[in-house]
Amino acid sequence: MNPVLVLLSGGIDSAALVHYYRSKNTSVYGLHVQYGQPVAEREAQAAKAIAAHYGIDLRIAHIQPPLARKGDEYLCRNAIFVLIACANLSPGINRVALGIHSGTFYYDCSQGFMADMQRLLDGYFSGAVTVEAPFLRWSKLEVYQYCTSHGVPVDLTYSCERNNDEPCGQCPSCYDRRRLYEAGGFMSGKTN
């Protein structure tokens, strides 16, 4: 398969995504975006650890000024990430992948968003670049089950949206991890 540029946040979903493409013998490259998030340092460490684990090249892009927020939501985040990824495509790479999944209320984690982004990319690249989200119809639990059944190093990931030191336990990402624990997905209650 053609190489793919994975948006590597350092969380469970993007770690699963790297494994997913590697298991299909696809050349994988990673792009981690720093966008002024409070947990920038921890996310970058996690993205680097995942990239090292899988032996993939990782670029880090910086957005200045930081993205605008509305509560816990960063406005237009995934759209901006896809466009930054497209601006960072190396010759021979014409696919960008996101680790988004079902069960979230954010527009930029929906099928409509993916269709809209593909239309935008078709306009820019005349159909030569595709955006992919193989887990789009999976629940967070299904993504985690994929990780545990395929040996994805979840212990290297970090998902809290508020704290660099210890997970806050209150943000949407910590809530997702707590739900996985309650559903029997995690072996311990740790929320990192």
What does this entry look like structurally?
The protein has about 190 residues and is α/β, with parallel strands linked by helices. It has six helices and seven strands. It has helices at about 10-20, 40-55, 75-85, 110-125, 140-150, 170-180; strands spanning about 5, 30-35, 55-60, 70, 75, 95, 130. The longest helix is centred in the N-terminal third of the chain and has 15 residues, at about 40-55. The radius of gyration is 16 Å and the shape is globular. The termini are far apart.
Secondary-structure topology with pairs:
Blueprint: E1 4-7, H1 12-22, E2 28-34, H2 40-54, E3 57-62, E4 69-70, E5 73-74, H3 77-87, E6 95-97, H4 111-125, E7 130-132, H5 140-150, H6 172-182
Parallel strand pairs: 1-2, 1-6, 2-3, 6-7
Antiparallel strand pairs: 4-5
Helix content: 25-40%
Mean pLDDT rating: 90
Helices and strands, in order, run as EHEHEEEHEHEHH
Assign the structural class, choosing from mainly alpha, mainly beta, alpha/beta, alpha+beta, or little secondary structure: alpha/beta
User: What's the total helix number?
Assistant: 6
Q: Strand order within the widest sheet? A: 3-2-1-6-7
Beta-strand percent range:
5-15%
Number of strands: 7
- How much is the radius of gyration in Å? 16 Å
